[in-house]
From TrEMBL:
UniProt-recorded name of the protein: Unannotated protein
FAD-binding PCMH-type domain boundaries: 35-213
PANTHER family: GLYCOLATE OXIDASE SUBUNIT GLCD
GO terms for MF: FAD binding; oxidoreductase activity
UniProt keyword annotation of Flavoprotein present: yes
Upper taxonomic lineage: unclassified sequences, metagenomes, ecological metagenomes
UniProt keyword list: FAD, Flavoprotein, Oxidoreductase
InterPro entries: FAD-bd_oxidored_4_C (IPR004113), FAD-bd_PCMH (IPR016166), FAD-bd_PCMH-like_sf (IPR036318), FAD-bd_PCMH_sub2 (IPR016169), FAD-linked_Oxase-like_C (IPR016164), FAD-linked_OxidoTrans_Type4 (IPR051914), Oxid_FAD_bind_N (IPR006094), Vanillyl_alc_oxidase_C-sub2 (IPR016171)
Oxidoreductase in keyword set: yes
Cofactor: FAD
Amino acid sequence: MNDVVAALGGIGLGDRLLTGPAALAAFSSDAQTAFQQRAIAVVVAETVGEVQAAVRVCHAAGVPFVARGSGTSLSGGSLPVEGGVLIALNRMNRVLRVDADTRTAVVEPGVINLDVTRAATPHGLYYAPDPSSQSICTIGGNIAFNSGGAHCLLHGMTSNHVLGVRVVLPDGELAELGGPSAETPGPDWTGLFCGSEGLFGIVVEATLRLMPVPEAVRTSLAVYDSLEAAGDAVAQIVRAGLLPVALEIMDALAIEAAEASVKPGYPPGATALLIVELEGERDVVDADAARLDALLTASGAREFLATEDLDERALIWKGRKAAFSAVGWLAPDYIVQDGVVPRTRLGEALVEIGRMSEESGIRVANVFHAGDGNLHPLILFDSAVPGELERAERLGGDILRLCIALGGSITGEHGVGIEKREYLPLMYAPDDLAAMRRLRDGVDPAGLANPGKMLAPEAA
């Protein structure tokens, strides 16, 4: 390993090659802090050439490497690999250009998600994917995990907004996938790369699709006396043919946490809140709003309010987007899950999660992208209590099994990483998993790019 560190020292990084214990400790986990591992060195890259040089050193020595942005992965996806090198991309954080005519932005991988919209706003444009961590997560990580966000119901996931990428492959070769247009001929290599969790290499530049700022945006907040009723309301809205830009649900625990933390001023006494957002041309939003109000009334909402005021809308969303971190006010520790169920079975899933929570004695705060059935149960526990971590982890596994049984998935946007790789065989047949491994091996025969993530080591 000393030879690898010495070789990395020869690529001109200077003090951006980190090898000291304190520096390595700072990169020893991502947001899934249950997993800890130190790299043998951290390369803080500033250029494409430095990323290539670092990968080539690793490839020549047969040493694994992992790319990392802000470290907001909730599945252990950017955890260092034992005996490996971590390549930090935070300083590759430039918005290289915004083209208003083609509605595109070209950015480096370390650009913060929200900074793309900030750069596009003067042109009347914005970047649609909006994970809850959008104020700190980076575009490179969003691409690796095909992140979604509250507004993915209408606008889709990250893969729907990435037109092309420049990537450093596992042997250090620089490749161009896709291009400035969605009409690139041939196989959709860009789409394949999105969501590959770093197994195919490292994004060093991305061409992103931008959206025009809508003429009108209306956010509604509906109060329900049961979580099941809120879940059923989502199915009724979609069944009626409405397609809001966002459909989000928070339960009583998530509401309590948000009020304790960012104080959004949600209606008191709510068992569940449903957030519905409409956007588009003025006439269309007005017509859809009338239909939505009637649907919310018919769905049993105790009360609801609607606003187009920017500050009021921002406060509603502040409570929702702060929910993950806010539950820290309710418990010393928590696990975030990321399962998916069909919209038609949301109510059923929520009732069953409530039963499982009560049976296990572990509280669960529910906050999720209801429009596409993407559940984010927040499993609250205290690791200082003997056995409670194990019970919380078992409950998390049971929730994932429930999602599969209901015809869903073990992940909607957080990825498989380390945390959920043991559940992948419950979703896919052996032939399916073998096909995934053949594809990975075709790109990375030596298995050096983020090994052990998604595909279990024994299947590598």
